[in-house]
Amino acid sequence: MTSVTDTRPAPLKIGPLTLDVPVVLAPMAGITNTAFRRLCREFGAGLYVSEMITSRALVERTTESMRLINHHESEKTRSIQLYGVDPKTVADAVTLLVAEDRADHIDLNFGCPVPKVTRKGGGAALPWKLGLFRQIVEAAVTAAGPVPVTVKMRKGIDSDHLTYLEAGKAAEGAGVAAIALHARTAAEFYSGQADWSAITTLKNTITSVPVLGNGDIWSAEDALRMVAETGCDGVVVGRGCLGRPWLFGDLAAAFRGDASGTPAAKIEPTLGQVADAFRRHAVLLTEFFESEERACRDIRKHVAWYFKGYPVGGDLRASLASVVSLAQLDDLLGTLDGDQEYPGVGAEGPRGRAGTPKKTSLPEHWLDSQELVSAERAHLTEGEGDTSGG
User: DUS-like FMN-binding domain: from which residue to which, for each copy (predicted)?
Assistant: First the structure.
């Protein structure tokens, strides 16, 4: 294993923004709403990005999109991720955010591998059409003015259709403030092991803006190792923080640690502390949704992640996963033995659905050419109709 000695990077600069801890919360549909972002901030530091918001829906000011772009007053750096396939629509969405002072940072999604997105030519499929990719990024950067724009992408569609180097150079030329790479292809989804060597290659190619690495960061040690092995300027953390908002505390301590390379003490919560974080999450969701009932429905999907590895019986887990009120949640959590110690490796490692490698859903004849043909524009227009939040 590579030593973590002297791996502390300099403060991460994303345009006018400076992060003393070079850590970014990856946008995750249905997860990184205001409630979860606030909870993660309470444990650590970094940049916390919103759920993906569809540009057309935002321009049309749909109720859901306008709700998703709201930030709590405690969120001092407001970060929003946009998804779009049309340069003008993306530019209009960025203009709205900037003109109404709703964002301090805008990220563009070119990494989503979900079939409903890629089959319309969006997400991880779009950089294959390099000219269109460049137009979208240039339009966003121009519309954003002083607000920094970044891009998040994957290696490509599959191993035969890699796009990250050409897209990275195009984004750099268009004036983005940073580039993040999830070191998998769309076809890999979240399966297997992320190819960190691709992050190294991108970092060696892009020289004027920071390169951030994403993929298989399950611990602070993983983050330090990624920086040491790839030379990247910071890390983007996604599934590793599911049910573990305190991971951002681990990351902050690790990156702020001394130069001796001695690992910082890891947060190892008791079962009671996990229960407290789980309940806090539910309370924040209640504020976000302005509905206790809806918050309880939403917190159910987090049960397995929070209590992974802890001695919580199947019946209790099932009850937590069907909770309907905070009062009921309190009653259930009150039955736990809060003094149960951290279970170690059982609570760590991969979480979330990895999926399996499979052929990426694409518009017909999408791979025939890297130039966008007129017949393909209809697919792109349809793709803009997807609901914000993924």
Answer: 25-328
Q: Is 40 one of the catalytic residues?
A: no
Residue 284 sits in the same domain as residue 137? no
Given 112, 232, 241, 296, which residue is catalytic?
112
d(CA 31, CA 288): 12
**pTM to 2 decimal places:** 0.93
Q: Which one, of 96, 94, 95, lies nearest residue 106 by Cα?
A: 94
- For residues 386 and 148, is the Cβ–Cβ distance under 8 A? no
Strands in 17-120 per DSSP E = 17-19, 23-25, 47-54, 79-83, 105-110
Closest CA to 358 of 91, 165, 158, 218: 158
Q: What is the DSSP letter of 97?
A: H
CA 147, CA 107: separation in Å to the nearest integer? 10
Residue where one domain finishes, among candidates 265, 288, 303 = 265
What residues contact 81, with CB distance under 8 A and at least 6 apart?
Answer: 27, 49, 50, 51, 52, 53, 106, 107, 108, 109, 152
**Distance from C-alpha of 50 to C-alpha of 26, rounded to nearest angstrom:** 8
Residue-wise pLDDT for 144-172, tens only, equals 999 999 999 999 999 999 999 999 999 99
Inform me whether the pLDDT recorded for 128 exceeds 90: yes
- Amino acid in position 149: V
Q: Indicate whether 31 and 166 sit together in one domain.
A: yes
Angle at alpha carbon of residue 133, lines to 127 and 137, rounded to 5°:
130
Per the annotation, where are the binding residues for FMN?
27-29, 81, 152, 182, 238-239
pLDDT tens-digit readout, 258-271: 555 555 678 999 99
Domain span including residue 96 = 12-265
Chain Cα centroid distance, residue 239: 8
CA-based max dimension of the chain: 63
Known binding site: residues?
A: 27-29, 81, 152, 182, 238-239
pLDDT digits (tens, 9 = 90+) for 204-242: 999 999 999 999 999 999 999 999 999 999 999 999 999
Q: Is residue 5 part of a domain?
A: no
Give yes or no: residues 208 and 331 share one domain: no
Task: Return the SS3 of 343.
Answer: coil
Count the neighbouring beta carbons within 10 Å of the beta carbon of residue 201.
19
